[in-house]
Amino acid sequence: MKKKSFMWMMSIMLVLFISGCSSSSATFKPKDRIKVGIMLSDVGLGDQSFSDSAFKGLMKARDELGIIFDYRELKDTKTYEQGLRELAEAGNDLVIGLGFMVQEDLEKVAKQYPKQTFILIDSVSDLENVTSITFKEDEGSFLAGIVAGLITKTNKVGFIGGADVPLIRKFESGFVKGVKAVNPQIAVQEVYAGNFSDDKLGASIAKKMIANGVDVLYAAAGLTGVGVLREAELNGKYAIGVDSDQYFHAEKAVVTSMLKNVDVALYTIIKEYVEKGSIPKGTVQLGLKENGVDLAPIRVISLNEQQQKTLETWKQKALEGTFE
Amino acid sequence: MTIKKKLLLNSLLSLIFSVSIIAFIIFNMLSIQSSNQDFVPMMMKTQQLQAELKAAKQSLNNYAYSPTEGNKQEALTRLMDSEKLFKQLDEGMKQPYFQQPFEKAKQKFSALMKEAKAALDARDIAETRRQSMRAEGILNDLYVVNMYVNEYYDYMQKQLQEQIRSVITISFVSVGVLLLLASFFSIRLTRTITTPLRKIAANAKEIARGNLRVEPIVYKGNDELGDLNHSFTTMTEQLNGLLHSVDTMSKQVEAFAKEIEQENEMLTEINNQVASSTNELSAGAQSISEELQSAVQLIEKMESTFSENVARTEQTAKYSDEAVLAIVNGQQALEEQLNFIRENAKATALIENATKEFADYAGKIENMAKAVDEIASQTNLLALNAAIEAARAGEAGKGFAVVAEEVRKLAEESAKATNQIFEMVRLIKRGLTNVLNSVRQGVEIADAQSRAIETTTNAFKEIEQKVNGISHDIQSLVSGMAISKQLGEQVLQNVESISAVVEQSAAGSEEIAASMTEQLQAFKKMGEKVTTLRQLTDELQTMMAKFETK
C-alpha cells in the first residue's frame, strides 16, 4: 500500500508540474516613444497653409525621427483650450499651438500643466514652460518686395494686410523695404482689411488697387488674401502669396509666395528634442538663415539674368542680415 | 496484486505520464498556432489599408490638379476599397492600444468619405484638395495603429518564443522525471520478481542434479510466483514419492519377469506337442479328400449317361406332340368337309323349293292360257254370229262381214298361240319333275356322305385320345428323368462340398501347424523380451541408486 500511494503521489506531482508551467505572461506595453500633440489653427488640416505645413513637418519628424504625433482641430474641440487640454492630458511630451490666436488658450493650459513643454508658433509667450517660435516675416517679405519691384511696370504695387497688428506690420515693413531697394520711385499702396477670412472683401480691395494702377499685389491676410490673388488673376495682374506656396489659388497670377516654413521649424525643434531631450526656452526666431522663411519658386513670369542676379544679391545680403 | 497487474500498472503509469506530456505539448502548440493565425492577416490588412488610403489621397490630389471623370472614379474606387478594409479590420482591433487610434481613424474616414464625395460631385477642386490633405490625418492615426500592431506582433512573437522554450524545458524535465521514475519502479518490480525466481531456479538445478533433498523456499506473496513456488514444492514432494514407488515397482517387475520366463518355457513344450498332433490330423484329412475325389468322378460319369437318356425321352415326347398336332389338323379338315356337305344339303333344299315354286308358276300360266283359250273360242263364236248377222243384213253388212272375218281369224290365231303355250307348259313341267328327282337323289347322297364323315371323325377322336395318353405318359417320364437328374446333381454337389470341407480342414490343420511354429517363435522372442525387461529393471535399479531421496 505504501508503494502504491507513493507512485500516485509522484504522478499527481508530475501532472501538476506540467500544467502549472503553462500559464505565464506579462501584459503588452508598447515601446516608449516621444509623443507630440498639435492644435491646428482655425480651418484645420487641408487649409493649404499653416496647418498643412505644420502637419508635413510633423510627418517628416514621425517618419525620420521615430516620434508619434496626434492633432486636434477646432471644429472638433470647439475651443483651442479644450483641444490643447486633451493633448496635454494624453501625455504628449510636446504640445504645440499654431498661430497667434491660440496664445491665450495655450497659456491657460500651460499653467495647468506646468511640467509639460508647450510650443507656441507665430507668437511670443512669457510662460516658463512655453517655447515661442516666430519667423522673421520681414526677411521673407523683403524678398517678396524685391520680386514685386522687379516685375512692376506701372511702378505701383499694393500690400493688403489682414489686420493692423504688429505681426502684419512686420510683413509690410519688409515688403516696402524690398520694393524700395529695387527702385525707391515705386509707390506702395497699403490697406488693412481688418478681417482674415473674407475673400470677397479681399477681392474688392484688390479691384480698387488695380483701378489705381497697381499691377503687383502682396497679401498677408489669410482667406481675405486669397480673394486678392483671384482678383489679380481676373484682371491679368500679378500677385504674391503668403505663408505657403499659394500658386494653385491663381495659377495665372501668383508669381511667388513668401513662405513661412512651419514644417521646417517644427521638424528642427523636434529633432533637437529627440537628440538632446529638451528644447531651448524662451523665444526662437527663424529667418532666412534658419530656413524659417523663404520664397516659393518663381512661376508665371521668368526673371531675366539681370533680375535674377539682383534677387540673388539681395537674398545673400538678407542671409547675412545686412539688408537694412 | 498479481505480477501481471503490477507490470500493467507500471507500464500504464509510464504511458499516462507520456500521454500527458504529449498532450501538454500539443495543447501549447495549438494555442501558439491559433494566436498567430488571427493576427497576421490583420497586420497585413492594416498595411493594405494604409496603402489604399494613400492611393485614395493621391487620387483626390490628382483630381484637384486634373478634374477629369476618370480621376474622380479612381478616387471614389479607392475610397470604397478603403471603406471595405475599415469594415474588415473593425472586428480584429481588440487591443485597447490600437483600438483607440483605429476608432479615431474610422470616424475621421467616415467624415472624409462623405465630404470627399460631396466635393467630387460638386467638382469643388479646392475642397477636394483639402480632403486629400485631410486624408493625411487618418493616415497618421493608421500609422500609430500599424506601429502598435507591429509592436504587438513582435511582443506576441517573443511571448511565443518564451512559451515554446518553456514547453521544451518542461517537456525535457518531464521526460527526465518520467525516465527516472519509470526505471526506479521497473528495477524495484524486476527485483521482487527475479529474487524468488533465482532461488527456485537454484532448487530446480539441485533437483536436476538428482538431489531431491532441497530446502523449500519461503515466499509470502499471493501472486504467480507464490503459485509457482507452491507448485514447485509440491512437485519436489511428488517426485520423492514417485521415485520411491518406482523403486518398489521395479523390484516387483523383476520378480514377475522371472515367473513369466519359467511359464514361457512350459508353454513352449506344450505347443510343440500340439504341433505334432496337428500334423497327423492334416495327413488323415488329405487321404479322405483323395478318396472323395474318385467318388465324385464316378458320379459324374453316371450323370452324363442319365443326361443322354433324358435327351432321348424328350425327343420322343416331341414326336408324340407332333402326332397329336397332325391328328388335330385331320379333325379340322374333316369338320370343314362336313360343313361343306351340310351347306350342300341346304343348297339342294333351296333348289327343291325353287323348283316346286317354279312348278306352281307353270300351273298358273296353264290356267291363264286356259282363260285365254276360252276367250278365243267365244270370240270365234262371236265372229260366226257376226258373220251370220252380216249376211242377213245383205249388202249393208258386207263391211261388217269383213270385220267379223278378221276377228275370227284373230280368234283362230289366239287359239293357236294358246295351244303353243300349253305345249310349253307341259314341257316345263316335265323338266321340273326331272330336276326334282335329281335333287332328291343329291340329297340322299349328301346324307350318306355326312354319315360317313361322322364315322371318320369319331375314329379320329379316338386316335387323338389314345395319342394324348401316350404323350402324357412320355411327359411324366421326362419330368421323372429331370427329377432323377437333379437328385444326381445334388448328390454330386454334396459329395463335392464334402470334399471341399475335407480339403479346407486339411488346409486348416496345415495353417494351425504353421501358426504353432510362429507361436513357438513368438514364445522364443517373448523369452528374449523378458530377459531384456530384466536387464532394464536392473538398469532402473542402478539409476534409482543415483537419487538421494528422503
UniProtKB/TrEMBL annotation, chain A:
Claim: Cell membrane is one of the keywords in the record: yes
Tagged with keyword Transmembrane helix: no
Cleaved signal peptide residues: 1-26
Membrane association type: Lipid-anchor
Keywords: Cell membrane, Lipoprotein, Membrane, Signal
Subcellular location: Cell membrane
Pfam families (alphabetical): Bmp
Native organism: Thermolongibacillus altinsuensis
ABC transporter substrate-binding protein PnrA-like domain residues: 37-316
Coarse class of the protein's main subcellular location: membrane
Protein's recorded name: Nucleoside-binding protein
Family: Belongs to the BMP lipoprotein family.
GO cellular component, one term: plasma membrane
InterPro entries from the UniProt entry: BMP_lipoprotein (IPR050957), Peripla_BP_I (IPR028082), PnrA-like (IPR003760)
Automatic annotation (TrEMBL), chain B:
Domain HAMP: 191-244
Domain Methyl-accepting transducer: 263-513
A single GO BP: signal transduction
UniProt-annotated location(s): Cell membrane
GO cellular component: plasma membrane
Similarity section: Belongs to the methyl-accepting chemotaxis (MCP) protein family.
Coiled-coil regions listed in the entry: 246-305
Sample GO molecular function, one term: transmembrane signaling receptor activity
A UniProt-annotated Pfam family: MCPsignal
Keywords: Cell membrane, Coiled coil, Membrane, Transducer, Transmembrane, Transmembrane helix
CDD domains linked: HAMP (cd06225)
Protein name: Methyl-accepting chemotaxis protein
Source species: Thermolongibacillus altinsuensis
Matches recorded under InterPro entries: Chemotax_Me-accpt_rcpt (IPR004090), HAMP_dom (IPR003660), MCPsignal_dom (IPR004089)
Top-level taxon of the source organism: Bacteria
Entry keyword annotation includes Phosphoprotein: no
TM spans (from-to): 7-30, 167-189
